[in-house]
């Protein structure tokens, strides 16, 4: 079967499953999937070891995202189990009666089949599939080539058996079973079958897919850039600043870790300790603005830039970074408020690491990705609560006319 035919078949099967998804059955399926993650732990880890061995020449950040271990597999099971226990989407938003007697309700309905193209990070497969199912959408997944074997096991040995055992079509979650990048291009070219595709990954590749999707009439939720910003204000506590920097660098291969540290020149007294902290963690300090971590094969870098004002920090955070997340360290509440009000990215923090820019950390639901678009719609961490279409439902008695 040619790749286009295979993807068409996966999308058709997912489309046929949509009308059969119910909140009760999906909750059951997700609970079963969590149990299967634990039951299939040996198979998952064996597949992941093969993926990691085959990808040994990749950079450290990519390998960190690819690699699973006992703790990470257990965390995946916990997240799926937690998702199963969350409240389903409330379908009716608001309702009212018009003077002519028409009863109008504004409702949330499923999108249908949602595609997802994501980096070689196996856990994302469960996060995204779980969110789609929880919102009563079906999906077709496509992962980076390095993670294909692990993701195939997660789909075939976890998700599909869980769906079937809950009385739902196993094909509700499809998979592009090819390492060829053409699979991603085909996934964003099926507007009638897959009208929305979630795009995660590095900048230019994701941007190219978004442009191709637009040409084909497919909408996208794109997560193309990452990198957290921290502004150390003149009135910052050195202890808090150093603690937040350290907390922001616990993992380097993630999008919400510290990428850019802006330091007020009046806070220069803490710079030696800051640089010592970075050096102790093997972090290379650079001074070039405007480079996001996702575009850099070496994640062990942080840009440190010295500024004269809060206004300059806000401008840089807004205009020269991805708009993912930025935080401030200061003991001055007025300065903190000015920074929080001025920053227009998806998440703004005061005395908190940007590592909390995460759907599960902030909302209790794993995310499909973090949307940094400057347009209306779901922005920031996107969860199942965002994956719906608005519909007006109108009920009359047959006498209403215009």
Describe this structure as you would to a colleague.
By secondary structure, the chain is an alpha/beta fold. The chain folds into two domains: 3-224 and 372-393, Aldehyde Dehydrogenase, Chain A, domain 1 (3-Layer(aba) Sandwich), CATH 3.40.605.10; 228-361, Aldehyde Dehydrogenase, Chain A, domain 2. It has 14 helices and 16 strands. It has helices spanning 3-18, 23-39, 41-54, 60-66, 70-85, 123-134, 148-165, 182-187, 203-215, 238-247, 271-280, 310-319, 333-342, 359-363; strands spanning 92-97, 103-109, 113-118, 138-143, 173-175, 196-200, 219-223, 228-232, 258-264, 284-286, 301-307, 325-329, 347-350, 369-371, 380-382, 389-395. The strands form four sheets. Strands 10-11-9-8-12-13 form a six-stranded parallel β-sheet, sandwiched between helices. A five-stranded parallel β-sheet has the order 5-4-3-6-7, sandwiched between helices. α2 (23-39) packs antiparallel against α5 (70-85), α10 packs parallel to α11 (271-280) and α12 (310-319) runs parallel beside α13. The longest helix is centred in the middle third of the chain and has 18 residues, at 148-165. The protein is globular, with a radius of gyration of 23 Å.
Jot down its keywords.
402 residues; alpha/beta; 2 domains; single chain; globular; five-stranded parallel beta sheet; six-stranded parallel beta sheet; Aldehyde Dehydrogenase, Chain A, domain 1; Aldehyde Dehydrogenase, Chain A, domain 2; 14 helices
């Amino acid at each position: 079967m040619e790749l286009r035919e295979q993807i068409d078949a996966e999308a058709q099967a997912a489309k046929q499953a949509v009308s059969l998804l119910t909140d009760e059955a999906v909750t059951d399926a997700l609970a079963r999937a969590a149990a299967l993650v634990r039951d299939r732990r040996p198979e998952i880890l064996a597949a992941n070891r093969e993926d990691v061995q085959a990808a040994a020449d990749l950079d450290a950040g990519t390998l960190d995202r690819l690699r699973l271990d006992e703790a990470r597999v257990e965390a995946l099971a916990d997240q799926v189990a937690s998702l199963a226990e969350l409240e389903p989407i409330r379908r009716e938003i608001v309702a009212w009666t018009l003077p002519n007697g028409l009863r109008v309700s504004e409702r949330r309905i499923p999108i249908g089949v949602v595609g997802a193209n994501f980096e070689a990070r196996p856990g994302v497969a469960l996060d995204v599939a779980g969110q789609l199912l929880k919102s009563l959408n079906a999906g077709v997944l496509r992962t980076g080539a390095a993670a294909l074997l692990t993701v195939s096991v997660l789909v075939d040995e976890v998700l599909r058996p869980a769906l079937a055992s809950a009385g739902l079509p196993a094909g509700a979650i499809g998979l592009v079973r090819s390492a060829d990048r053409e699979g991603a291009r085909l996934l964003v070219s099926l507007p009638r079958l897959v009208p929305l595709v979630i795009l995660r990954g590095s900048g230019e590749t994701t941007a190219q897919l978004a442009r191709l999707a637009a040409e084909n009439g497919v909408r996208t939720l794109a997560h193309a850039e990452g990198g957290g910003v921290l502004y150390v204000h003149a009135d910052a506590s050195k202890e808090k600043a150093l603690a937040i920097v350290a907390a922001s660098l616990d993992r380097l291969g993630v999008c919400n870790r510290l990428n850019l540290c802006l330091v007020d020149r009046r806070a220069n007294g803490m710079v030696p300790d800051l640089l010592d902290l970075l050096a102790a963690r093997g972090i290379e300090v650079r001074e070039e603005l405007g480079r996001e971590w996702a575009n850099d094969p070496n994640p062990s870098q942080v840009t440190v830039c010295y500024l004269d004002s809060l206004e300059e920090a806000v401008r840089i955070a807004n205009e020269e970074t991805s708009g993912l997340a930025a935080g401030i360290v200061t003991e001055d509440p007025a300065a903190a408020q000015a920074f929080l009000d001025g920053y227009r990215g998806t998440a703004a923090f005061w005395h908190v690491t940007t590592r909390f820019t995460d759907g599960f950390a902030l909302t209790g639901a794993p995310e499909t990705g973090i949307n940094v678009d400057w347009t209306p719609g779901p922005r920031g961490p996107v969860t199942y609560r965002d994956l719906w279409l608005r519909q007006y439902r109108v009920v009359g008695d047959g006498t209403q006319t215009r």
